[in-house]
Amino acid sequence: MPNDLMTAAGENLRGTPWQVYPRPQMRRESFLNLNGAWDFSVNFEKMGQIRVPFCPESRLSAIGKHFEEGSLLCYQRTFRLPEGFQKGRVILHIGAADQRADVFVNGKAAGCHKGGYDAFSFDITPFLQEENVLQICCFDDLQDQTYPYGKQVLPEKRGGMWYTPVSGIWQSVWLESVPAACIEKLHVENRGYSVKISIEPALAGTVTVPQLGTFQLAEGSVTITPDNPHLWSPEDPYLYDFTVEVGEDRVESYFAIRCLEIQKVGVFPRLCLNGKPYFFHGLLDQGYWPDGLFTPAAPGCYADDILMMKKLGFNTLRKHIKVEPEEFYYQCDKLGMIVFQDMVSGGRYHYLRDTVMPTLSLTSQKLPDKWLHRDPVMQKRFLAGMEAAVRQLKNHPCICCWTIFNEGWGQFDADRVYEQLRRLDDTRFIDTTSGWFRQRKTDVDSRHVYFRKVKLRADTVKPLVLSEFGGKTFKVDGHIFNPDKAYGYGGCETREALCDAIVKLYMEEVVPCARKGLCAAIYTQLSDVEDEINGLVTYDRKAEKLEPGKLRPVAEALQRAVEE
Fold first, then answer.
1. Which uninterrupted H or E stretch holds 326?
2. In whole numbers, what is the pLDDT of the chain averaged over residues?
3. Which of 98, 217, 394, 546 is the S-S candidate for 116 at Cβ 3.0 to 4.6 Å?
């Protein structure tokens, strides 16, 4: 594997990485970080130590190797609870581990979780001793494509739009102490210009919002409607902090008030934010890093990406076929970046069926019945992953749209899946089929345009979204992952040529479409990723390819177009 951009940080196991509180929307005072050096074995053969929360394929893990599919990856460490830490029950949290994780405390089974992208936790109180041995055994098999797996591919097939695989633990491992009767789940639902805060179980308690006062929970919930709400937007990302107190339990959180609607403006339906037409000017964001793969070296890397893209005038990131640690969404909430959140694709991808024929318009827009993904196990696991993603992330105000299927990959019963997602969350836009193979039920008409001019006009029924386009390439010497391969759509020889080409694409093709009903455009993409060199910054994030001053007028023109 090319290592030109890899840092040496993974060779040093000292220190505790990722020390931020992993669940920013439900914070308690109790927090014991278990990241850092763990003993690591593969199929019961000792491999030395690994640095959690980085996957073994990454340099930051100090392993830098992908093991044979179906290998058993075992992590082990000891811990003692700090004095005064345990005030009732002790909960073990694991942000994510791919694909299956079995947890043992002092040799006793504490629980099992399946699915590589969602957080899980176990009450380990019954197993605790003065000194404790924690083991997490992970099993991952990419050849079993019934689990959602996203852009991961077997190492020998890596290249182009397919990336290095990830296995084992790739998010934070941590402990918290909670009272016997505690808040197990916190729900924040922003509906229009009100916010509903509720807890499970439905206990009596109070919600205190410093800007607004103290409110009583009635049957575990309260709805707050400020007289003059301070609205959240990328231009003004205002957050209301609040605390919930129930008996001996106290959690800190925040909410935002922002209104998402579809309104007819002239002859076209428009996506509206806070009562006004808003152009969602975005980028595809794969969420990969050269040294950590799924996991950046530090939480602040998310903020760096967000601020870099805001400087260029973008207000939206389409998180592409990956669910991130909650820290990413917290930074988007706080810094003001809208997120279009994809579900993680699973099932077998077929290049001819899912990409070539639709791109060349050799098929109808409707997915032929014979091409539907019929594996009931895959369908069940996809739906479980979708539900887990929504329940885990729906409190974050930055998320304004869910994307279910991308370009037919893993697509099945799209209308039924739309209805299931709508029952989980009826407060956001839903893009059921991004790109092509549209069915009947979706909130937007979602198109991908590569290899031809962007010529789109909205109908009078659904808002039009250009959910992928662009992908122009520029190779920055000294910042290339693989000098022998380059992947993208349309090469540019210089920074100036790249900037001119992107500005021309927007001003001559996308802005005219915005005047004809286009509501959002997602350019490919935020950063280079491995062989892909179509990012606006390099894979290592050290070289920016565009001058902000030349691109900001594009954002202004797009917003003016939807207001005309």
1. helix 326-335
2. 93
3. 98
pLDDT tens per residue, range 451-463: 899 999 999 999 9
Residue 259 in contact with residue 273, Cβ under 8 Å? yes
Residues 203 and 302 sit within 8 Å (Cβ to Cβ): no
197-215 pLDDT, tens digit per residue, is 999 999 999 999 999 999 9
Please choose, from the candidates 94, 69, 95, 74, the residue with its C-alpha nearest in 3D space to the C-alpha of residue 166: 69
Strands (E), 69-131: 72-79, 89-94, 97-98, 100-105, 108-114, 120-123
- For the segment 420-430, what is each residue's pLDDT rounded down to a tens digit? 999 999 999 99
| DSSP per residue, 225-250 | --SS--B-BTTB---EEEEEEETTEE
Contact 197, 188 (CB under 8 A): yes
Comparing C-alpha atoms, which of 434, 286, 410 is closest to residue 349?
410
Of the candidates 472, 432, 430, 438, which has an alpha carbon nearest to the alpha carbon of residue 454?
472
> Crossing angle for the helix pair 414-424 and 376-393, nearest 10 degrees?
30
CB crowding 510-525: b at 16 or more within 10 Å, else e: bbbbbeebbbbbbbbb
- The CA distance from 564 to 544, in Å, is 33
Tokens of 309: 């893209």
pTM over 0.70, yes/no: yes
- What's the Cα-to-Cα distance from 123 to each of 79, 110, 177, 224, 467, rounded to whole Å? 16, 8, 10, 33, 41
Beta strands in 295-373 (DSSP E): 316-319, 338-342
189 and 427 in contact (C-beta within 8 Å)?
yes
